[in-house]
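re: ur question from earlier - yeah i can do the single chain one, its not a big deal. heres the input i used so u can compare w yours
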Amino acid sequence: MKAFQIKRALSEYLPDAWMHESSQQAQLLAVSAITGALEHPEESVLTSIFMPNEIFHALGLRPLIAEAVGDFIAGAHAEAGCISFAEREGIPNTYCSYHRVLLGTLLSNIFEMPKLIANCSVACDANNLTFRTLSARFGTDQVYIDVPMGYDEEGCAYVADQLRELARAASEIYGRRLDEDLLRKKVACSIRTLDLVARSLRLRAGRFVKNNMGLEMQYGLALHVLLGEPETERMARTMVRDYLTAEPFDGVNVVWSAAAPFFCVPLQRLIDVNTDQQIVASDMCFDQVSFSGWEHDASDPYLAMAERLIKNSYNGPGQRRADRLIELCEQTSADGAIIFCHWGCKETLGVSQLLVRELERSGYPAIALDGDGCDRANFPGGQAATRMGAFLEMLHAKKDAREAAEAEALAAELEGLGVES
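and the output i got, formated as tokens:
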């Protein structure tokens, strides 16, 4: 815990100067969210990353998610002990590493178990197993939100009713009254924030976003765990400004899908804050945005949250994820995409080849990269870096050939007009 508190203080008072200001804000938000939840277990709710968290924030509660715990424990180089404890408790080594870390920390009493578990069916099957196991072991109340695969108004109302029941249960368990006006304000803030994030996408094309895999995860945490908070809206507004004024970038842009192994040094050397190639966007940061507007607004916050949950690009058929990745590539003028297949994530493993196929059909080269986003002992980083390095070299060659062809065509056009190039 002390290490997390020190990291929070460093993020607040001595942020890395090379970062965009919005990246500094994202780092502080992510560190503060997880550290605060662990410091105040009496105010924490154990939940899943895709859950709408405005209800909890309106009650003054702190969401705690498996991915955040896994990332921060891995960042502290302490994941091996937690995973080992979970496996001694009967959790198989084929299970998601994020969830093995979470189970290890709670089953070993490193962290105190929150009083409520709230999870949904989007999109991780490990969520259902993990939270059911913890509920049975600790006798903790659990609320489960069943999310339909496709969107219609009947399904939206069905999810909204479940969210109302979650709000009632949380109010009762924590002895707090939910201020519905405050909830509406937080949902309105979420909508504005997601609209700003969507607006930032086109601004990234041809700009140096100064990104790394760790920042992508921190942006993802802030845009899920703290969505609806004014600090997150401010981060999104700063992001738009940062990319409007960012320096030009002439290297290769890739879109990243799913978790990122931020601790892997060979991959860091290839992609982190690199003037030759960069992650221009990650679908984990854009899973909740709408490029065509929303059916519901904050006047009925439960319907608005339900719509966002059902339409999440990670919910439903894999084609929805493919379509979102293609949108990200189109709007950022990306050169290709990397699908990271995290160990134990059956959802991504099962859909990875569909994603690669659909991206390539749309003209965007793609690679499925196997690895582990949480357990460094389970990730052959050198092999992954070799594959990714070869993929990036191919993207550079394609980009160079395309630019040469465009220059040749322009020269021919000018010559036809009698103009010297």
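Residues 2-403 form one domain. not sure if urs matches, ping me
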